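Protocol step 4 of 6: structure prediction from sequence.
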Amino acid sequence: MADEWRGDLEEWLAPFLAALRHKTRMRLCPAYIAGLIGPGDRKSVQPMAARDGEFGYDQLHHFVAEGVWDSTPLETLLLKEADRLVGDEAGFLVIDDTALPKKGSHSVGVAAQYASSLGKTSNCQSLVSVTLASREVPVMVGLRLFLPQSWTGDVDRMDRARVPHERQVALTKPEIAIEEIDRVITAGARFGCVLADAGYGSSGPFRQALSERGLLWAVGISRRQNVYQADIGLIFPGAATGRPRKYHVPDGVAASAEMMLAEAKWKTISWRRGTKGKLVCRFAACRVRVAEGHKHRMSDGRVQAMPGKEEVWLVGERRKTGEQKYYLSNLPADATLKSLAASIKARWICEQAHQQLKEELGLDHFEGRSWTGLHRHCLMAMIAFAFLQSRRLKAAGRKKKSRRATATANDAGHQASHS
């Protein structure tokens, strides 16, 4: 069975190996990926080399951390394979981040920072993740390191960790995410809607960048995000004294997302069936314009942001635990509450990918310190995950085909017995 698995891996990796264009690297790449997939608690280079037997630590370490080769062709091939497996105009591109806990201060990007996956501030590396998904099947296609200010403000530190000069700039996670989305679009991978949590969705420039690209999106926001009713008007209020107003102002006041939906009609919605039955929550939605334009001082002294140009959905979710979440989406104005809920909740599929990459494929086991080594290790882990997903989908297809054949045979037998 193990030989069959490794044989399948070699065959599946053929396009990736051809892109490496070097005989030794073409042997080391499958060995590294097999080490990530295979047995063993630790998936760092040293224990993988010890289990492999064919290649030593120095060879595997040089391949992933020191070797002079371009990972871009492999990243493009991964996107093409992901599109073949799960690309769908009705699918999703999920933006999230994941934390790799780290001790010390020398590994690239490590700092005390909030890790959403851990739910607390921790000493870790934080990666922006990009997952292509459809039919509840995820394939991760991007992991890019976020550099906090403690790194971008120290050029010597970045040089020691071999951060490429073009990456030695301060970028927010939403900015990194947009770069990755552009890479996915350029590769031609198919998806219908971009999903992200409030860490990204609360960024007006992020949402605007998605809309400018003609993309549909559904993203989390803070309950405090101010919004206007969709039919908000703009007026020139008269002034008894002083200079006349130069700009329009809203004819109503903005309210927080929480307040806007406080009196709305909440409905219990089931968006899909899980392993323990239907998944349900209470949802409400209304059309709004986000208070994210330029700011004006009103006649009563308040400073108020102007309504944005785009009319969007504001969606609220009330969970059984009492927790409330809020979202914005530019899905069509005739979208149903169920379709809004189903899109929003589809984001959680990326957590399955994060979990397997860490628990089974050693994503967080890399012990090197360099930018190149970390990103290549992440790439190898994502390629390994895509391979496993391809096997699962193939097995599921065989099972489905077998069930159809059995049903057809049973139907034929049933008809024969009555003829």
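Step 5 (inspection) to follow. The mean pLDDT is 89.
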